[in-house]
Amino acid sequence: LHHAQPRTHTNGNDSKKFKGEVRSPGVPSRVVHVRKLPNDINEAEVIGLGLPFGKVTNLLMLKGKNQAFLELNSEECAQTMVSYYSSVTPVIRNHPIYMQYSTHKELKTDNSPNQVRAQAALQAVNALHGGGMGTMAISADASSMGGGAQSPVLRVIVENLFYPVTLDVLHQIFSKFGTVLKIITFTKNNQFQALIQYADAMTAQHAKLSLDGQNIYNACCTLRISFSKLTSLNVKYNNDKSRDYTRPDLPTADSQPSLDPQTMAAAAFAAPGIISASPYGGAHAFPPTFAIQQAGLSVPGIPSALASLGVSHTGMAAAAAAASRLGLSGLTATGGHNVLLVSNLNPESVTPHCLFILFGVYGDVMRVKILFNKKENALIQMSDGTQAQLAMSHLNGQRLHGRAMRVTLSKHTTVQLPREGHEDQGLTKDFSNSPLHRFKKPGSKNYSNIFPPSATLHLSNIPPSVVEDDLRRLFGSSGATVKAFKFFQKDRKMALIQMGSVEEAIESLIEFHNHDLGENHHLRVSFSKSTI
Fold first, then answer.
1. pLDDT, tens digit, for every residue of 438-494?
2. Fewer CB atoms inside 10 A, N or C side of the chain?
3. What is residue 129's predicted lDDT score, i.e. its pLDDT?
4. Which residues sit opposite 61 in a β-bridge?
5. How many domains are there within the chain?
6. Are 421 and 349 members of one domain?
7. Tell me, what CATH number does 434's domain have?
8. Residue 189, class by beta-carbon neighbours within 10 Å (0-12 exposed, 13-18 middle, 19+ buried)?
9. Which domain of life is it from (predicted)?
10. Do 374 and 423 sit in the same domain of this protein?
11. What CA–CA distances, in Å, run from 307 to 185, 270, 311?
12. Could you tell me the pTM of the whole model?
């Protein structure tokens, strides 16, 4: 049994633990053992893995074994690095890289040619990053640009939000400039915003200079970026609204609608659960780690727009890129996630038609099924994944008939119709040939008039004979309060009407969209971004 003894190498205990892929990172040390490196790895690339987390103080390359040891200036930096990469696997030329703490507490190096190269690489990198002349020039430049004190944290506002922007999309874009450590997304003043923390202010400055004013997708979702007053973010949960990539152990916390509905609606963008993608969108030109199982949930197939920031160029959404290149709006580019599960409905008053009209504000609803034995739940099939995302982001947490709806992506890819002769009391309806679809025509101006539910409704297609009183009476007829009304000066076919609350506006939209006003005019109702 002699040969069953573990063979010891120069790196002692380190190689014994790696028989399996899944391993505990071991006892923290400022020396990190990196494995499964590609054969043609160079020193600078290995140092690059550690740089975002602190100063790399030493390096030992074991090229024959495709391994390396990296020493950081503190145990704390090494811990941040190891836990970051345990949630976001780094990839170099298609090789996933694994790492854990070494049993060594520091590296002792000799003068072998191998080591001389490593030391030279370290000196080169430290000269670049260690506050030599280069850094001075950049910071002097930055201060003359104004725009708040420099901080590693950027505040990002997304304007013209015609497509949902998820935390993962932001992570992908901002990772092109360096490792993103933490992200928090929220809605404030009806605007989707995010706080994004890098390892240092220089990286943040670089990202800000490159991205401020850019559009994420063609002609929409414009980034407005400033330095945050905060210098560090405190993330409590890893979910679709906030993420600390250095702490994969954080709970997801149930994002039940305990927040106010407005925040919920605008922030509940991505599917729950941690979707980790490679941090290297392009910073080190590493390919993305793996195509996410959800096949690019976060990058919808944007009708006729190739994402102008290259969002959809990564492996996360090859499908989305293909869809957008073909200019297809109806293609399910998000891996078939076009069915929504809506729960906590009011079973007394909800019907397939009412869900069809409400969800139809954000996309073309194909089918609706209210579940026979759980009537507070419904499945809604949209015509594509982008529309499903959009409806979810705007309607999750909104109140309908006295209850806050919960909207999530369903596992189902379609809604089944009942078999012939098995009618289910009208609980399943097929709307695929409805004349009321708002987004049938590619490039329809309805695409640019998508807004979150609001108390003020936009009315159009009003015939000349209908006056303000008629419309006030109509909208008050269901018991709702009409607070204000105003015709558009330029075009009397359109008007704004302000209801007593967002919930009243939602119910009025459901009731009066497509209402026959006579003279062959059917009223069109949508949510408005304006107030009266």
1. 988 776 777 777 889 999 999 999 999 999 999 999 999 999 999 999 999 889 999
2. N
3. 58
4. 68
5. 4
6. yes
7. 3.30.70.330
8. exposed
9. Eukaryota
10. yes
11. 21, 18, 6
12. 0.43
